[in-house]
Specification:
transferase, kinase activity, alpha/beta, Euk-type_GlcNAc_Kinase, 333 residues, Nucleotidyltransferase, domain 5, single chain, five-stranded mixed beta sheet
Length: 333
């Protein structure tokens, strides 16, 4: 087994890091998973240390030495690589670690786009912990958003949805907001008898606000699907935002008059109702009538690996092998 025929694929998300080694034939040699290590969250050095440790574990799991270099090419698609300047800093830092002869670092939304297309051309919107979108035209032009939260105009993502569920439940309880079935649903989620109990738990740290927001996102969608109008308005707002992200990219890249894939992914969207997806498709087709909506539930690390195979010059057979592989369950840290 030659290391020069291997791709080190890294999907570095906010909540987890997924690492695979894949050879030039598209065979998955190993797959491991560790904690989220976004550079924006844990810092550059801790992020790289986490990625390096996982790469070493993946190497050992593949029957290799566990020592760098692990592969000929590293394809790292990371949350937190939101601006070209960040991508450059991260690329230089990863290259300096000596994990492979060549390195590409880009935002993780590009990995979703590649996972949902055969050539990385189209528009992708990811809605997981946060929300982001990217578009790539046939001539190589790209369109993207900073995706830095509220300061860059963002709205949406699992944390936002869960936060809205909590906010609406509190206001329904204290009289500032409309009655909503989110109130009993949130109480049931926490096993609490009052919103005061929940609020105090969050305030004093007995309950983790970040964890709570993510966990409440599915509650919001369940209540909306059951017909609650307050929760349904939030879901409608999300479909509008997803349509806006895709529509802006389609317009800016001049893709409104041609067949173009619009790839959706991330935990919020892969678990979304058919109504949400139908609303998003309608909004996309209002901008680009020949757009094709694609919901992708492949792990984003597969998209990273596909970009890596492209860099190795692997052909369609390797891509087909990787897409058709029964991926091993990631070994947890």
């Amino acid at each position: 087994m030659k290391t020069e025929q291997i791709v080190l694929a890294i999907d570095g998300g906010n909540s987890k890091t997924d690492v695979m080694l894949v050879n030039a034939e598209g065979t998955v040699l190993s797959r491991v998973r560790g904690p989220g290590a976004s550079p924006q969250t844990v810092g550059l050095q801790r992020s790289l240390d986490c990625f390096g440790e996982l790469a070493s574990r993946a190497s050992r799991a593949a029957g290799l030495s566990g020592e760098a270099p692990f592969a000929t090419h590293t394809a790292a698609y990371l949350a937190g690589a939101d601006l070209p300047r960040e991508e450059q800093i991260l690329s230089e830092a990863v290259s300096a670690r000596g994990w492979s002869a060549t390195t590409v670092v880009a935002n993780d939304t590009f990995a979703l786009l590649r996972a949902g297309t055969s050539d990385g051309i189209g528009v992708a919107v990811v809605c997981g912990a946060g929300i982001n979108a990217v578009g790539v035209a046939p001539d190589g032009r790209t369109h993207r958003f900073p995706a830095l939260g509220r300061i860059s105009g963002d709205w949406g993502g699992g944390a936002q949805m869960g936060g809205e569920a909590l906010w609406l439940a509190v206001r329904a309880d204290d009289g500032r907001g409309e009655p909503t079935e989110l109130l009993p649903a949130v109480l049931a989620h926490f096993g609490a008898t009052s919103m005061a109990e929940v609020i105090e738990g969050l305030h004093f740290g007995d309950l983790d606000l970040g964890v709570a927001q993510h966990a409440l996102s599915p509650v919001l969608f369940e209540v909306a699907a059951a017909g609650d109008p307050v929760a349904a308005r939030v879901v409608a707002r999300l479909s509008e935002e997803i349509g806006l992200l895709a529509g802006v990219s389609l317009r800016r890249l001049g893709l409104t008059g041609q067949p173009v894939p619009v790839v959706l992914g991330g935990g919020v969207l892969t678990g979304a109702s058919g109504q949400l997806l139908a609303d998003v498709e309608r909004r996309c087709k209002e901008v680009a009538p020949r757009a094709e909506l694609r919901l992708v539930d492949l792990p984003p690390v597969v998209g990273a690996a596909l970009w890596g195979l492209d860099s190795l010059g692997a052909g369609q057979a390797a891509e087909a092998a990787l897409r058709g592989a029964a991926l091993p369950a990631p070994a947890a840290a």
